[in-house]
Amino acid sequence: SIYGLPEVVSPVKMKRVGVAH
User: Fold this and answer.
1) Which among 5, 9, 8 is positioned nearest to 18, based on CA atoms?
2) What predicted TM-score, i.e. pTM, was given to this entire model?
3) For residue range 1-21, what is the model confidence (pLDDT) as tens digits?
4) With contact defined as beta carbons under 8 Å apart, do 17 and 8 qualify?
5) DSSP string for residues in 1-21
């Protein structure tokens, strides 16, 4: 997706990764 990461597996992690990235 936008971050190109498996956010679908962990929507919460996706938000954390999105901010970190």
Assistant:
1) 5
2) 0.13
3) 566 666 666 667 666 665 655
4) no
5) --S-S-TTT-HHHHHHHHHH-
